[in-house]
Amino acid sequence: QSVLTQPPSVSGAPGQTVTISCTGDMSNIGAGYDVNWYQQLPGTAPKLLIYRNTNRPSGVPDRFSASRSDTSASLAITGLQAEDETDYYCQSYDSGLSASFVFGTGTTVTVL
Amino acid sequence: QVQLRESGPGLVEPSQSLSLTCTVSGESLNSGRHYWSWIRQRPGKVPEWIGYIFYTETTEYNPSLKSRSLMSVDTSRNQFSLTIKSLTVADTAMYYCARGGGYCSAGSCYGSPWFDPWGQGILVTVSS
User: Fold this and answer.
1) Range scoring the smallest mean pLDDT among B37-46, B92-101, B108-117
2) I want to staple B61 with a disulfide (CB 3.0 to 4.6 A). Which of A25, B24, B51, B72 is the partner?
3) Phi-psi region of B120 (alpha: psi -120 to 50; beta: other; left: phi over 0)
């Protein structure tokens, strides 16, 4: 069971904006550890979308943006496209009893 | 362009050990620019970080797997490896190697505490 909680699913029509939340606590996001976001297409490895809370790697469309506050973070996808329909994970470091890098519970985005 | 490729067996019997190797191209491990990690993903589950290694052989493991895991690095071949012993069916997963990780403490991490790029992954099935 992950310490970073995401909604199981979000959906939106093409062109709309969807937001995925990632809720942690004072042992991870609230402790100051950065949040990173990944997109995973079926049958492929996760791909880095956002690093250090708000930064996009080269090649990632600016439709993807992220923010972070207190003990949570969020990923926004604006101008939703059919190709965005897949799974998304947040990731951070947790300094709790089992200190390690952790991934969120995952969110499936559906384009209506 | 940095690329990673996993290699190893696709089928392992319960109670046996699993050994995987990650071959890195496009960046020298002994440049010391990054940490290097293993991550697995059980079928239908979220990714699970297993551990990282630095070219100096410094390692850190997920506490849930620490007692059964061992990572090593071969800078002459630009490879790093993972061994997990005493396998059970619960270890059946896609295993990925990735660039990233780092020492974290007091709210910050040294290194690149995100994972990019990833290898294509290798499916390991634990079954008799």
Assistant:
1) B108-117
2) B51
3) alpha
